[in-house]
Specification:
With about 300 residues, the protein is an alpha+beta fold. It is about 20% helix and about 35% strand. The protein is globular.
Length: about 300
């Protein structure tokens, strides 16, 4: 079985060592969408854990994996029509901590979903943690897939890779990860009504996506979960072990957002890109509502 897995893997990834975190993410998604867990097994640590929408579940049999393995449909993530083939995919990589967070689009049976997955690796490039969001949202998937770019085998979104004059000034201005995390914390304090003293600036022409939809501006929206209406508390902020992409000047983070007045909780994943003036100029947010008071999975 292991020999078969590596033979199958060779067909999927001709050059694993080129970019191991991205490439193993491709293995993960391929194993899921083809309902073939044996592809992934060689890359799993013995104590690997899996969560979906904050719930701890058994890998391969729980949640989306379980539905995929029992589905009669063969089009999970790779349908026959053009809308299903053009799949959005965008990754944030932190090689220093062995983590990668990816936003993509799939099918859960016949339902289009936004799928956010964070993989954490050990030093042997074995997966230790799998953290996922599953967001049923046909309109959001349609918006995401309309932004997809075809780069060959995989379709990668380029939301945070657009050219910007403040990003092309060379490496002299680049911030260290501690400063990036500090700025990301200030962004969340902008939302958190219990700690609203710190503000974060938004660059001119800043663009924002929320579950695939382009918002009018980067200012905090009037709709939940990221509005400043109600009684918001942002807790369990996790910057993917300070998971910052210093080369891109971006931070990917997870947080739980409560509205104490409305008794609602959202599980939020968010990528922030900063320009050379230390202002936010790209935001990509995915979120799903979970039972009020739910805790994060890690």
């Amino acid at each position: 079985m292991v020999l078969f897995s590596f033979l199958a893997l060779a067909l999927v990834l001709p050059a694993l060592a080129r970019d191991p975190l991205r490439d193993i993410t491709t293995v993960f998604l391929t194993a899921l969408t083809t309902r073939n867990p044996s592809l992934l097994e060689p890359f799993l640590a013995a104590n690997a854990t899996y969560s979906e929408n904050t719930l701890s579940l058994p890998l391969f049999t729980g949640g989306l994996w379980g539905r995929a393995s029992s589905s009669s449909s063969s089009s999970l993530g790779n349908g026959e029509n053009e809308n299903e083939k053009m799949v959005y995919r965008h990754s944030h990589v932190d090689f220093s901590t062995g983590q990668i967070a990816t936003v993509t689009t799939l099918l859960d049976g016949d339902t289009p979903i936004i799928y956010t997955v964070r993989l954490r690796f050990n030093r042997r490039n074995e997966i230790l943690e799998v953290e996922t969001q599953v967001i049923p949202d046909p309109d959001g998937v349609r918006e995401y897939n309309s932004k997809a770019k075809d780069y060959g085998v995989d379709r990668y979104g380029v939301w945070m890779d657009d050219d910007d004059e403040t990003l092309s000034a060379g490496g002299a201005w680049r911030m260290e990860r501690d400063r990036l995390v500090e700025l990301a914390g200030a962004y969340y304090s902008h939302i958190d009504n219990s700690n609203g003293s710190k503000e974060v600036g938004f660059g001119k022409g800043c663009l924002r996506l929320e579950n695939g939809r382009e918002m009018p501006s980067c200012e905090i929206q009037s709709t939940p979960p990221l509005s400043r209406n109600g009684e918001k508390v942002v807790r369990e902020r996790r910057f993917v072990f300070q998971g910052t992409d210093v080369q891109r000047q971006s931070v990917f983070s997870f947080a739980m957002v409560d509205d104490k007045k409305e008794k609602r909780t959202w599980y939020v994943a968010e990528g922030l890109r900063f320009n050379g003036l230390e202002k936010v100029d790209r935001i990509e947010t995915t979120f799903v509502e979970v039972p009020f008071g739910s805790g994060g999975p890690f």
